[in-house]
Design goal:
The protein has 283 residues and is α+β, with helices and mostly antiparallel strands. It is built from 7 helices and 13 strands. The chain has one domain. A hairpin with a 5-residue loop joins strand 10 and strand 11.
């Protein structure tokens, strides 16, 4: 084989090495130094592989999926019945749209997608308002099982704002234990009937967290199952998640705990988890 014939395979091999090396270096940079933020999440905000169902894909590595939500602009809507990616965000007001500078006048009638920085709020005012809405004792449509679910089972992780710079958002949200800044995509659309703008969070750029070794990939020699499954199968755990210098999440530690047994838990509505959101359907 001539040098000319070897050139293409060599270039391909070097390109693969460069890409792999870049990924490794990016990961090392993200996890180096002081984290940009650290959230202590639970099974309410982190979905296990394959829904955490026993007997399926026993060799699935530990990859946790962030379950985030968006507070609806329709304040009469059920806080747990909407899927985040199709929920018009309450905080995406006309002034916010103007501040972000996403929609130009020449294209105001069409949808606009924009890569942006998003603020994740954990267990804050957005979730408190959701609980207040569905648990309002004065409401004629109050459903006790939905109230129980929202209070004790639904994700408390909300996308609550957007901006162009980490420094600007940190000035507004300095608490790094309850607010994380992450890259994501939002969609702005205009209602053709009244001209009102609506904003939607299309997704987070990185919404999965890889478990650390050896928990992530070790297999129990007796059962043949992944070791993490035995630790987390009861779906009651805390995971400390760091968001690094590249604003990407990575798992620091996971700790399981015993759940409180009560009759209210047995009355919970069945949870159906959607990508980027939650919805509830009765048993």
């Amino acid at each position: 084989m001539t040098l000319q014939q070897l050139r293409l395979p060599i270039v391909g091999f070097v390109s693969i090495l460069a890409v792999c090396g870049g990924i490794v270096l990016a990961g090392m940079y993200n996890q180096g130094g002081i984290p940009e933020s650290t959230l202590k999440l639970s099974e309410r905000e982190l979905e296990l592989p394959n829904g955490g169902e026993p007997g399926k894909q026993d060799n699935t590595p530990l990859t946790l999926h962030l379950l985030w939500r968006v507070e609806s602009a329709d304040q009469t809507a059920s806080a747990v019945s909407t899927v985040a990616t199709t929920t018009r965000a309450a905080w995406m007001t006309p002034s916010k749209v103007a501040q972000l500078g996403i929609v130009s006048k020449s294209r105001a009638s069409s949808d606009e997608l924009a890569s942006i920085l998003l603020v994740l709020e954990f267990d804050g005012p957005a979730h408190a308002r959701a609980v207040s809405r569905v648990c309002d004792p004065q409401s004629t449509s109050r459903d006790e099982s939905v109230c129980e679910f929202e209070s004790k089972k639904a994700s408390r992780l909300y996308v609550v704002d957007a901006g162009r710079s980490v420094a600007g958002l940190r000035a507004q949200y300095p608490d790094r234990a309850h607010f994380a800044v992450v890259p994501g995509v939002i969609r702005i659309s205009q209602n053709t009937s009244d001209g009102e703008f609506g904003g939607y969070v299309t997704g987070l750029s990185v919404d999965t967290v890889q478990g650390l070794e050896p928990l992530r990939s070790s297999i129990d020699p007796v059962t043949g199952e992944m070791s993490w499954r035995q630790l987390l199968m009861q779906r009651n755990f805390f995971a400390v998640i760091d968001f690094g210098r590249r604003l990407e999440p990575w798992n620091v530690s996971i700790e399981a705990f015993e759940a409180e047994v009560n009759d209210a838990h047995n009355a919970m509505p069945k949870m159906r988890q959607e990508q980027g959101g939650l919805s509830v359907s009765p048993r």
